[in-house]
């Protein structure tokens, strides 16, 4: 496929920038060794992350459950642990109460989740679910 034809398959969006913003984007792009387009896309990806797939959602939930398991965390995070187990039960129809989640699931390499991804998941998926749950109470 010719280069020009391939480029038309990408989503294009014309944008008017306020005075001075182009220069700020250019400076940030130069500092990060990337094009202005890549800088803008990276900024938008950070602000508007794509939703997690069901597999990613489950992996993050398991990683969070293991991270905040009160047995591992010296009794702390009991409420967070209860909430993530409820999330897993509701979202995936899987009751893990009483299971050794770390032994049963976390040895799977899919659950070796970077902390940055876990933080994004908590903000993007789990956080809104908790807020919705607490509004319903």
Automatic annotation (TrEMBL):
Q: Which domain of life is it from?
A: Bacteria
Q: Which InterPro entries match?
A: Arc_DNA-bd_dom, Arc_rbn_hlx_hlx, Ribbon_hlx_hlx
Q: Which residues form the Arc-like DNA binding domain?
A: 10-47
* Coiled-coil boundaries: none
- Please list which residues make up the signal peptide: none
Q: Which Pfam families match?
A: Arc
> What is one GO biological process annotated to this record?
regulation of DNA-templated transcription
Extract the GO molecular function terms from the UniProt entry.
DNA binding
Protein name as catalogued: Arc-like DNA binding dprotein
């Amino acid at each position: 496929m010719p280069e020009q034809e391939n480029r038309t398959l990408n989503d294009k969006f014309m944008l008017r920038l306020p005075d001075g913003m182009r220069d700020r984007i250019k400076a940030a792009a130069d500092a990060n060794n990337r094009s202005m387009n890549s800088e803008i896309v990276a900024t938008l990806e950070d602000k508007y992350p794509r939703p997690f797939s069901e597999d990613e959602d489950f992996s993050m939930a398991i990683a969070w459950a293991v991270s905040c398991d009160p047995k591992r965390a010296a009794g702390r995070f009991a409420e967070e642990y209860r909430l993530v187990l409820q999330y897993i039960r509701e979202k995936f129809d899987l009751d893990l109460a009483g299971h050794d989640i770390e032994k049963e699931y976390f040895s799977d390499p899919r659950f070796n989740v970077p902390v940055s991804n876990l933080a994004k998941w908590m903000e993007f998926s789990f956080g809104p679910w908790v807020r919705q749950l607490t509004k319903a109470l």
